[in-house]
């Protein structure tokens, strides 16, 4: 290794040593969750998409969810100027959205009934009962603006390899274990800000 390469490696190691990333333990899950999540294909997890406790970069009040669509992170704001950061998949360029909404309801292993406009784009999509084959995964948080369903969700996925990408039809996808963690923390009526 040449001296300049060694210098770059030492600089990178020193810079990373100053990061304050602290992993967050997995939530407790039911036997059904364990069984069904085991049936979802696994993917090589990128360390940047892990679940970490960090200093709050959002400035929002505790209990708020902030989605950074450019960086592809979801932040759950905690007291004490801390957040839990999760890696997410977001809407691709044609289907992405931004705005403020609220969680109107939450569901475990929800059924999925694709909206009519999605059925027009992809005629092969169909109603799917909750379970390992379902694209909504282990949990779903339903986003409303006022009393109107936006048709967007924060949900698990049966395609964990796509976390960190812009690939959805506007929904925010999370690893199943991460959406269970968020589901357990977030209240109905919590504010969700998508930037």
UniProtKB/TrEMBL annotation:
- Residues at the active site: 155 (proton donor/acceptor), 171 (nucleophile)
| Location of the L,D-TPase catalytic domain | 63-195
The residues forming a coiled coil are none
Span of the signal peptide: 1-17
Q: Pathway listed for it?
A: Cell wall biogenesis; peptidoglycan biosynthesis
Could you list this entry's UniProt keywords, alphabetically sorted: Cell shape, Cell wall biogenesis/degradation, Glycosyltransferase, Hydrolase, Peptidoglycan synthesis, Signal, Transferase
Annotated TM spans: none
Protein family (similarity comment): Belongs to the YkuD family.
The molecule here is called L,D-transpeptidase
* Source organism of the structure: Microvirga terricola
